[in-house]
């Protein structure tokens, strides 16, 4: 029995992946699917693909684009979510900060360098006309690390997906003082080079099963209840999130998205060079245009 290890953040975006893994659709072919939660975000998942500790990863687009340029051997085999990710801009619930401008000189809490929380800090600084060449960062690993760091009275900024943090905002642990959406689709499906060579057709079927399952779940009136129960997010917030979320439904990939993402990352000084958009995808498994 072989195992395909799939890694992703333990958040509502990946519920459909967990359901497909639970169904174990390839046991008759002696292949077991294994889901691994990674709370430390896309930077850690890129590392897992690089080091051979994961076969498939559900990664933030901007994080993989940067890491691929820097040598990640993995390839995109499709999108998972095509709509932007809306990042909440958070401070400690005890903080006296009420305006975004008060955070101009505050350090950013990030899961790790190269993660979405790191890269989006530069985009926020650009939007607010802050000097992003002097940004300061504190690596905290995950949301639990942010909670611990917020014990300090020093003002700090934490960017994380707004509905994931909503229960902590409701509890008063975090305070959200703004939002910033990504200018690109939020999640790509990345497969390691080794898994593509060994299991190309299984990966194609797996991806398509996820697309089918997401379509089925969206049509289920109990879907918001399932998500609310599992992730502790209010049903009204789940409903709002579902309304703004566009799931990938097929293998079509617009390569211009990667060109635009690289242009933004280069403008922010986060990458030193660009590569051909073709290099991000494994073309036999996607409909690239």
UniProtKB/TrEMBL annotation:
> A cellular component term (GO) from this record?
periplasmic space
Spell out the Pfam families in the cross-references: PBP2_Ca3427_like
Q: Which residues form the Ca3427-like PBP domain?
A: 94-180
Claim: Signal is one of the keywords in the record: yes
**Which superkingdom is the protein from?**
Bacteria
**Has keyword NADP?**
no
Q: Where in the cell is it found?
A: Periplasm
Gene3D superfamilies registered for this protein in UniProt: Periplasmic binding protein-like II (3.40.190.10)
User: Mostly located where?
Assistant: periplasm
Hey, which family's this protein in? Belongs to the bacterial solute-binding protein SsuA/TauA family.
Q: What is this protein called?
A: Ca3427-like PBP 2 domain-containing protein
